[in-house]
Every structure is written in structure tokens, then in C-alpha cells.
Amino acid sequence: MAEFLQALAQGVLIGSTYGLLALGMGLVYGVSGVVNFAHGDFIALGMFMCLALYSALSLDPYVSIIITVPVMMGIGALVYRYLLRPMVGHKFLMVVQLTLGLSLVLQNGILMVFGGQPARTPSVMESKLWILGDVVVRVPHVIAFVVSFAMAIGLYAVLRSTDFGRSIRAVHQNAHAAALMGIDVGRVQVLTFALGLGILAIAAALLLPGTPIQPTMGLRYTVITLLVVVLGGMTNFVGIMLGGLVIGISEAFGTIYLSDILGMLLPYGIFVLIMLFRPQGLSWGAAR
Amino acid sequence: MRAEFYKTLTSPVWWGILALAALLPFVLPSYYLHIVILSLVYVALASAWNIVGGMAGQISLAHSLFIGIGAMISTALLLKLGINMWVGLVISAAISAVLAAMIAWIDYRFQLGHLSFVLITLAFAEMGGLIVEGWDFLGGASGLLLPRDAGHFLDFQFGGSQGAFWVMLFLATLCVLINVAILNAPLGYYLRTIRDNENAARAIGVNVLRYKVAAMVISAVLTSVVGTAYVRYLTFADPYLLVSPVITIEIVLFATVGGLGSAFGPALGSLLLVPLGELLRGQLGGVLPGLHYFIYGIVVIAVILITPQGLLPLFERLRGGLVRKHRVPAAEPQRRP
Amino acid sequence: MLEIEHLVTGYGGVPVLHDVSLTLSAGEIVGLLGANNAGKTTLINSLSGVYAPMSGRILFEGKDVTALTPRERVELGIVQVPEGRLVFPDMSVRENLLLGGINRRARAGRPRQIEHVMELFPRLKERLSQNAGTLSGGEQQMLAIGRALMAEARLLMLDEPSLGLSPLFVQYIFGIIDKLHAEGLTILLVEQNLNLTLRHAERCYVLERGRIAVEGAVDTVKDDPRTRSAYLGL
């Protein structure tokens, strides 16, 4: 039982951050139809920026988001404006290939700057533990959980009740009609992409404490994010957070109850099955 | 339509180029020979992938599985069970074919869209990599080491670089020729119909399942065979190289740069990018690891932004009509960006 | 108020509108008639700035707006009620109306404008928090018009407002259009329904295969044989 609760706790805590990662991707997909295969490499970029800030200024990752968030948003705006926007009207698959190319550039750019050795970025919270009965949780995971859900709720509120949020939803539901309202669709798309990368910068800091980082790890995060987004039904807010939990929990149970490798296989297996038998994702027709 | 194929097959130009190329091992220093061999490996892989990815328009990221099956299973069969590698090549090709047919069937049965297909095949590729890493029979994370190549042809040994070169030249030529053949056969026509509009293809009575399975199986078998030959050349069956989605991504990008869906585009992309990358790696790899991938990425982005049909159309314009153009760019309404 | 001079618009280099010239004075209600595919929607979308013209000019209150983006045109008050209504289905009526007035010029006045729209369409008031996708076709048309009014339109362009509505609703919607006209709004009414348009417009243009075939006062257009032939596509 203790083992079960332990796995559940760990899965929920990590899964919430997976959900946050996926919200950024779902938002971008909803507004501009772009599936960003360099998503995970941007997470890696966010993590390595934290590492650089720690090396240069001894900043704790939780503090360095003050710098990484605006920088990542700036990068996002430029990438969308100059790389992705020209692809509007081309086949969807060209965007896949372009972002795959971008993934190579980012991954190896990081490799050239930081080298390939696994690195760690210390944080004051890194080794703190909470013990609740039989369950031991790491404080960084708790922080990640709380912040992820707070961000998700905040994002939801922005989408619901601000003009910017309503513009995003309008572009998602009907870009042509949105343009007729006087919404600058291109600008909304750029801002949404920037927002997506800003969210990634925060998620990167949340995942960082205690995690050894490597330039090549981006692809794995891309895959996890894609799994979550698809499970969540691409653009469904609640569905995506739920998908994050499913992937997080299945990963945690897999690694605790099965061997390491089988545990890592489990999320993919679940993903393939859901993809085949519930292609619309986990959500049951909830509001967008 | 067939005429086109025979024209290529009987063209003295191509055979001349091929004959000259076959002499390369006698003149090239071993370092450059290695680069040429690698380029041919990717010509073969990208051309094989093109049958699914270019002609049928389905970005399969599962091809690392077929390379991996061809490489790891044939090696494991030899090392663990003593099965001759020629037999291993056939067994692994058969396994690849079954897996390919299964993927194509899933795609058809569940009517996966383009994105779902990319994602499912990526998930399969990730799972395949994890299975190889976790299964000692296939060498686990540390890989497998083949015995030294002593040049025994019957043991699937070709005597080092020279032999490997001719094998790869043969395989690369075969893959490109099969591309030309398919493009000029009914299969190629049906695949393009499916690519451009699957529902319309269905509506006019094209047997979508049959052609999807055919394309996937042909592509997978070729890829698997190239995988077996590649691992024989490398001697070391490295799961992180051969069963990683990265190798598929490379293939996809080379094919895209050259020109998807055309017979020679993927070959062109590989012949340009592999030597470029290898030379960069040779010169600067010690100082800047990853530089060649970085450059690949830049080239791909630039090509997609500047000439989305790939480089082949540019070359065709330069050479004027020796290679038939297979793609017609679609007209887009002039919407404000 | 609006002058279109020799406008040519097309897709992929192929013109759909050939040399279209059209004028509208302030306070006028002008009909734009034509069969399916005559280019009516292309013209209205050119006016909204969705398509960039290949040649020609568009002047709004003497100012050249040809190069302006859709957003800039909405800010000037050139507002379209699109064909098929295109309400945002997964948003409430209220959110749809708020989006209508999202442009910089109208944003501040939204609370007041919503009141105005509610007076005009009491039915929408009852459904303010309902999702637009759950409304009937007629209610969606009311919402689409209300949304355009939220933008503080000065030139209101309606694209096929009668499409797919029951006769009763058509009557109601055209009653509203008359009312808006009486309030002084300039209206461009794009319609396929010939008789309906002739009843409500002051002047008409008839588009035939991308060209203006007939123009003039309602009576002139009604009696012109080319009007009928434009419809029959002869």
C-alpha cells in the first residue's frame, strides 16, 4: 500500500508539470495549427539557461525564471515570426519537418555551448523532503505541482475573461471570423507562441532541481508532451491536465511495479491504445 | 508510364556514372571512402523512406525500427544462435515486413490522420529503442560487436571498406531504381492519389489498404536490408545510433532537403548533406561536437523556407529536363498573411 | 463615403473580380446582387481587407485604405457580417459581443453598445450566457449583426443575411436592417435574393462573373433585362 501511495503521489506531482508543458503546445496548436517538434528542445534550452545563470551569477533556478521567461518569450516571438509564419498555407507536414530541423539546431547548439556531459543545477530546495506517513515526497516536486496547477488555473482565467484570452479562443474557433472582428490574427499567433515558450521556461525551472540535464534530452520531452496533448484532445484545457496526470502516473507505476524499461514503455503503450480507440482524447466533450 | 522506367534503366548516362563510381575505392583515401560509404547508406535509407514518406505523404518516424531490426536482430542471431547473417538478413527483413504491414493496417483500420500517423510511428520508434536497450538478447544498452570482417562472402563479409562500398553502391542504386520503378508504375500513381486526397482515392475505388501496405512493406524491407549491411560495415551494433529516432529524423530531413516524392530527390539530399556533415565533423568535431547536426538543421530550415519542394527542382531547372518532374505545386489563394 | 475604383482581386494570380467600380454615399443602403460565384463574397472580403487586391483602389471617406489590414479597416468602421454568420460557437453570446467590439476604437464603449444591441434584439438578452453554437440560425444572425454593431460600424456590410433563414426570420432581420438604415447607418447589402434586395435597397449593383453588369436605382435595375440574365448565368 505504501508503495502504491508513493507511486501515486510521485505520478501526480510530475504529471502536473507534464500537463503544464502540454498546455503550451496545445495552445499553440489551437491558434496556429503548428505542432512543434522542437518543444522538448526548448525545455532543454530553458534548463540550460538556468544552468548558465547558476554558473555565472549563482542564481537559484527558481529565481532565474525572472530572466529566462522573458528571454524565451522573445525567442518564441522571433521563431514564430520568421520561421513558422512563412509556412502558413503550406502543408501541415512541412511544419513538422521544419520544427524537426529546429530541434536539431537547438539540441546541437546547446551541445556546442555546454558540451555533452550530464550537468546538474543545484537549488536550495533540491534535497528537501516531506514525509507524510509512509509517503516521502521531494519538495521540488511539490513546488512543481503547486505552481503547475496555479499556472493552469491562471491561464484558464486569462483565456476566459480577458480580451487577449478571448482573442486566442476566437482565432482558435474561427480565424477568418476573428480577423473580421479586427483581431490581428498573426499577432495573436506570435504572442501565443511566445506565451507557450514562456510557460516552458517556467516548467523547465520546475523540473530542474535534482534532474541531471543533457543536450539530447529534448526529444524525450517532446514525445511526452505530444503524448499528453493528444491524450487531452489537442486543445482541451482540462483534458490536457488530465492527460499529464495519466502519463505521469503510468510512468511512476511502471517504474515502481515493473522493471525500468517496461515502466518507460507503459506510457507509450497507453498512448497508442488511447490514440487508436479514443482518437478524440480523454475528455468527454467538455468545453474548450 | 513504364517507358520512363526503361529509359532510366537503359540510359548510358546513369550506367556511365555508376561505372565510374564503382572505381572510387581504387582512388579514394580511406577517410574519404568512409564518407562516400556513409553517403550511400543514407541515399539508400532516404530513398527507401521516400516510398512511404514522399510518395504516399506519410511522415513515418518508425523507420529506425526497421534499421534496428535489420541491424540488431541479424547480429544477435549470428552471435547468440550462430545463424548465418545472410539468413539473418532474410529473417530480419521478414520481421520488418510483418511489422510494416501491421503499421499500415493500423493506419488504415483506424483512419489515422497525418499527425496521428507521425505520433504513432514516433511512439513505436521510442518503444523499439527502449525494448532493445532492455533486452540482453539484442545487446541491451551496451550493443553487440560483430566478428572481424575477414572477407568471407558466404558469411556476409565483404572484406572491409572496398567491399562495403560496392555493397552499399548496389543497395543505393537498387533503392533509387525501385523509386523510379514505383513512380512510373500504377503503384506510384495510386500512392500519389492517396497522398493528395485519401477520401477521394477511396471514393474512386482505389484499394487504399493494399497500396499502403505495399508501400510500407517495400520501404521497410529495403530499410531492413540496408540496416543489416550497415551494421556489417560498422562492425559495432550500437543501439543509440541504429535504433534511435534521430536516425529517422536525419533521413526525413535529407529527403526533404533533396525533394520529397521524386525519385532522385532523397538521394540528392543525402549526397549533399552527409559529406558536408562528415567533413565538418572531421574538421571541427573535436572542438564543436554536434556542429554537423547543427548545420543540417540550418540547411533544412533554409531549404524549407526558400524552396519548399526541395533542391531537386532547382537542379532540374539548371539541367533542363533530364529528370522528369513529378510534383505540381498547388495554387494557393492570395490571402493576406 | 466609399469608393471602389477599378478593383481587381484574385486567387493564385487568376482574377475573380475584374475592374469593379462602386460608390456608396453616407447614409445610403445599396444592394449588391449576383448569382452564386459571381464574386460577391470576394468583393466584400476585399473591402474587409482579407484579400489583397491585384490592382485598383479603395477609398473610405476620401482616404486610401487599399493597403490597410483587416484590423485597421475595422478600426475605421468598415465592418462585415460574414456569410454563414460565423459566430464563435464555443463562446457565450456575451463573449461574442465583446469580441465584436474588441477593436481599439470601440473597446471603451462596449458596455453602452451592449445595451444598444440588447434593445435591438431582446431575444439575445435572454441568451447572454448561452453558447453561441446552441442558438438557432435566426438567433445566430441576430448575434452576427449585433457583433458587427459592437464594432461601432460606420459602413455595415451584410453578406447574405437571409441565407438559410425561415421567411419569418428573414422579415425580422430585414426589418432590423431598415431600422439601422433609418438610424443613419450606411449599409452594403450583399444578397442573392433579388426581390428582397430590391424592396429594401435604394440603389443596386449586379455582379456577373466578377464584373458589374448593371447599376442604378432600384427601378432601373429591376427592369433591366441584363439583371435577369445575370442571374440565369446566360
Report strand % of chain C: 25-35%
Q: What does the oligomeric state look like here?
A: heterotrimer
The count of strands of chain C amounts to 10
Order of helices and strands of chain C: EEEHEEHEHHHHEHEHEEHH
* Shape field of chain A: globular
- Estimate the strand proportion of chain A: under 5%
Question: Tell me about the biggest sheet of chain A?
Answer: 2 strands, antiparallel
What is the terminal-to-terminal distance of chain A? 37 Å
Give me the Rg of chain C, rounded: 17 Å
Identify the strand order in the major beta sheet of chain A: 1-2
- Tally of helical runs of chain A: 11
Q: Strand tally of chain A, please?
A: 2
Percent range of helical residues of chain C: 25-40%
Q: Give me the Rg of chain A, rounded.
A: 19 Å
List keywords for this structure.
heterotrimer; A: 288 residues; mainly alpha; two-stranded antiparallel ribbon; 11 helices; 74% helix; disordered C terminus; B: two-stranded antiparallel sheet
Could you describe the 3D structure shown?
The complex is a heterotrimer of chains A (288), B (337) and C (234). Chain A is an all-alpha fold and 288 residues long. Helix content of chain A is 74%, strand content 3%. In chain A, helix 1 packs across helix 9 (218-231), helix 9 (218-231) runs parallel beside helix 11 and helix 10 (237-257) runs antiparallel to helix 11. The model of chain A is unreliable at 284-288 (pLDDT under 50). Chain B is mostly helical and 337 residues long. Chain B contains 16 helices and two strands. The radius of gyration of chain C is 17 Å and the shape is globular. Chain C has helices spanning 40-48, 70-76, 93-100, 110-120, 122-126, 137-150, 167-182, 194-200, 218-223, 225-232, and strands at residues 2-11, 14-24, 29-34, 55-60, 63-64, 78-81, 155-159, 186-191, 203-208, 211-217. Chain C has 234 residues and is of the alpha/beta class.
Brief overview:
Chain A has helices spanning 2-32, 39-57, 61-84, 92-114, 139-161, 163-173, 175-180, 185-207, 218-231, 237-257, 260-277; strands at 129-132, 135-138.
How are the SSEs ordered, and which strands pair?
The complex is a heterotrimer of chains A (288), B (337) and C (234).
Chain A: H1 2-32, H2 39-57, H3 61-84, H4 92-114, E1 129-132, E2 135-138, H5 139-161, H6 163-173, H7 175-180, H8 185-207, H9 218-231, H10 237-257, H11 260-277
Antiparallel strand pairs in A: 1-2
Chain B: H1 2-9, H2 12-22, H3 24-27, H4 30-55, H5 63-81, H6 85-109, H7 114-134, E1 144-145, H8 160-183, H9 186-196, H10 198-203, H11 208-234, E2 236-237, H12 239-242, H13 245-258, H14 265-284, H15 291-306, H16 312-319
Antiparallel strand pairs in B: 1-2
Helix pairs in contact in B: 4-8, 4-11, 4-13, 4-14, 5-6, 5-7, 5-11, 6-11, 8-11, 9-11, 13-14, 13-15, 14-15
Chain C: E1 2-11, E2 14-24, E3 29-34, H1 40-48, E4 55-60, E5 63-64, H2 70-76, E6 78-81, H3 93-100, H4 110-120, H5 122-126, H6 137-150, E7 155-159, H7 167-182, E8 186-191, H8 194-200, E9 203-208, E10 211-217, H9 218-223, H10 225-232
Parallel strand pairs in C: 3-8, 3-9, 6-7, 7-8
Antiparallel strand pairs in C: 1-2, 1-4, 4-5, 9-10
Helix pairs in contact in C: 3-6, 4-6
